[in-house]
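Thread: "does anyone have the structure for this chain?"

Original post by V.I.:
We have the sequence but no experimental structure in hand. Need at least a predicted one for the grant figures.
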Amino acid sequence: MVQNNLNILIVGVGGQGTLLASRILGTIALRLGLECKLSEVHGMSQRGGSVVTHVKWGKEVFSPIVCQGDADYILSFETLEAIRWSDFLKESGYIIVSNQEILPMPVITGKEVYPKDAFKKLRDKNLNVIEIDGLKLAELAGSSKAVNVVLIGMLCAKEKIELDLAKEAIKHCVKEKNLELNLIALELGYEAIEKRGI
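Reply from O.Q.:
Generated one for you, tokens below.
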């Protein structure tokens, strides 16, 4: 059953398609007959910098910002970003995270160290974590850049949103040349949840 009110945080690094993901989710909300507000907040949005996008939908939406402890879902395209934003998840919420590790600039320059066992640190927080090898499924669909749509497929399956409705949103938001691979990525994410029965 689709929740009438849903707060979603989309986190990743520049170049992973967080903004496209928010547009797709916004389109899904509108097709469900709900109001939707989007807000992109980031530090360094160029490739490699941390990016977060807020998506809120419901019968009435007054603010575009998801507050700390208020996210029903966090879609994280990278493991460290999941840790960074995990405090925004509500107790009953879910983090859907691709277990990819992308080194941020401070790590690349040697100023900081990527945490060892980053995924274990996330699990140790006793959160509802759904881990996926998003990169593997994206590459199976035809592009490593489709991790964002794989995770959208997972959220749609978790929320019992009809696959055909989500496909129509993809068709509305994605360029023709990238359409087929994104539709496949959506299906692979959807199937990943159905296979797990969660």
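V.I.: this helps a lot. The helical segments are 18-31, 79-85, 105-108, 118-123, 134-141, 147-158, 163-173, 176-196.
O.Q.: and The longest strand covers residues 89-98.
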